[in-house]
Amino acid sequence: MTGGSDFLQLDPAGIPRGRRTDWLADRLRAATGEALPVGARLPATRELAAELGFARGTVTEAYQRLIEEGLLVTNRGGGTSVAARSAPAAEIDATTAAGATGPGRGTGPDSDPDVIDLISGVPDLSAFPRTAWLRAEQAVLERADSRQLGYAPAQGVPELRAELAGWLARSRGVTTSPDRIVITGGVTGALSLLYQVLGSNGGPVVAIEDPGAEGNRRILQHWGCRTVPVPVDADGLDVEALERTDSDAVVLTPAHHYPTGVVLSADRRRRLVSWAADRDALIIEDDYDAEYRYDRAPVRAMQPLAPERIGYASSLSKTLAPALRLGWLAAPERLVGPIVERRWALDLGAPALPQLVLTELLRSGALARHLRSMRTRHRGRRDALVAALTERFPGCRVTGIAAGIYLVVLFDDDVDDQEFARRAADHGVQVQPLSTHRIRPGRPGLVISYANQSPQRLRTAVGRLAAAGRRPTTIGRSDSGSQAARLPERRRQ
After folding, report:
1. pTM exceeding the 0.70 threshold for the entire prediction
2. Which of 163, 196, 204, 273 is 20 to 30 A away from residue 377, measured at CA?
């Protein structure tokens, strides 16, 4: 295809300006599975833009999305052509909580294209490195022997555990070895295994951050743990408050607290380790989005301070895609045996082939390259969201912007954030009330996930939020290590 787009029947009539990029990307994506064979050339961006009456940047962005998905490829001097066929997109429900879903629920693209999902807490799934994954998968299948195609150890394939030990040491400072790593079904799988081990000695008491990840709290309750909320302030978990509880363990997000974005201070890290030693307790470190840092230096994992007191969990859900259901747990030595036994009894362990593909991505450096690209991409989306909030909600306070794939908009105490979220839904935007993640009363607000939406889509979403009603106001303080966005005043509606 080098002479126009007539046979694609691209009729942009009636497409709103703010939806043109999404519309064009969707139509081209569908065409690569139907009308466009592999190798077919697309029109130059300038030519297609003129034909459709679009800005050239709109066409360029649509092409770029498909290039990042591995469906198109740019050829030096030869334009843009089809690299692979697309699979039909599945309709998936939005998540019920950031980072964790309810039974029968999932996360993914909006099933209704007019509804903008700012809840799901996933990375930019359109940028999944399909070409690199397929290349690694082909390499694995070409050389896989009978051992690798047989039953893998319940603990995880040895090759992946060896690569992860080195990767975690380099990227997060984690002190572990392959024999202490257990491959899990994401962070949720790691937490479930740990909770079951804790529960083998009776009903454990587990301290959790307040506010904290609502999904983690639900998993705890499912396994019969009694939870104790511990407040979080500008320095992270209040360890003094933790010391007044009778907890057997604590679950926390020290490098980037969910949802406020604060970092657990060095003094509190040391005090937390002392608490665990005095009580013979377990610290469970959920390092859920460690790879994304924008305005501050990377924050090291807490695990190296006490490898025998801390279970460290992370996954691919925020770096590649939740659909892979691959995570890992670096466990204290005394817990490895009981954890592996439970993993074996559950399902004999994670599927071996995806583990071997991840091994190849780590060995080749493809995963590191992908993460560098994603940091740049996510930062651009964060900047677009903050700029839109600045324009539409003058005077509000935005926190948690220095890292991760979400931010928090704080409200006045008299604002009902759940009612605001309901009104936003009526305007076609799904947002998550901050109160969803609280056990005790506290400052209301919104948790907004931005990574899986284009900058234009984010600007549209903020416009809809502005139409939904009452505004946030200037409150709160910035997260540790970065300055929160301060936004000018707006007249109350």
Report:
1. yes
2. 163
